[in-house]
Amino acid sequence: MPQPQPTRSRSRRRPSALVAAAAVLSSAGTAAGFAAPTRHVSTTSVGPSATSTRRWLSSPAQSPPTEPAAGSASDRIFDATLTLQQYDQSQQQYVKDDGEQGMGGGLSALHHVQSLDPSYRSSLRDAVEVLVTQAHAERADDSARGRIMLGFCAANAPEALAGLKSWVNGLQLPRGMLHGMDVDGVPIPVEELGSVYVKYSTGGAMTFKDMRKSGKGFDALWRPGDALLEPYDGDFRGIYLNVELADGVFRQFGVLPTDLFMEEEEDW
Question: pLDDT tens track of the chain, all 268 residues?
């Protein structure tokens, strides 16, 4: 999906990295209102009654991301947006050069993620933190603004939930309920889930169409920090990030590394 480009050219600063302390994955989706490219995401759902109301995160959150000190807020947002746009462009080119392996080029995108060096990963973390910090500030003034949406494509549920936990903790995002791990109150064995897609949103929103489909009426309304797990039959592995800021610029990026906010010294 084409990304809008900033209209000015300027050199980037590279702030120091913030490394989140969490367990790392051994290998590598859309929130309500978060539309990832259709070639990346399966639209299959778990089913009308397959929603869970258990807490999905219990560990204490980490310290909030630290804003770079230099430059104005608008400069930092511009730089962060540019960094992530350039990342998307480099991934698209890599996928093309790699022969678009896997469904929609999903395996090639994973190869690109695995090729990132530590300094580049650091710049991606810094960019994500800048945008999320701004979204936090806007949401503090008005809960309807500054929505952050994440989409986790993973080979299995444990990978997806480990990634979700690390991003939520590392970015100080709200925690809600995890839905989609049971059918009519009966837990689904994790080994039967296979590849999954987890949708997360700080905005607490669900369309009326989705509410009707769930059969739960207003009880199905998403609350801030809720997440939904559903089957996924694609080959992409990683994170889609969508940040809505007051300037109205469309900011959707990915796929980003699942372990971006996990300990660097481990292998992905």
Answer: 444 444 443 333 333 322 222 222 222 333 333 333 333 333 233 222 333 323 444 434 434 444 444 578 999 999 999 999 999 999 999 999 999 999 999 999 999 999 999 999 999 999 999 999 999 999 999 888 999 999 999 999 999 999 999 999 999 999 998 888 877 778 888 778 899 999 999 986 556 676 666 665 555 567 889 999 999 999 999 999 999 999 999 999 999 999 999 864 344 3
- Whether the link from the prior residue into 19 is cis, omega within 30° of 0, is no
User: β-pairing, 177-179 with 227-231?
Assistant: parallel
Closest CA to 247 of 134, 165, 142: 134
Gap between the Cα atoms of 95 and 91, Å rounded: 6
Q: Which of 131-155 are b and which e, b meaning 16 or more Cβ less than 10 Å from the residue's Cβ?
A: bbbbbbebbeeeeeebbbbbbbbbb
Enter the pTM of the model: 0.70
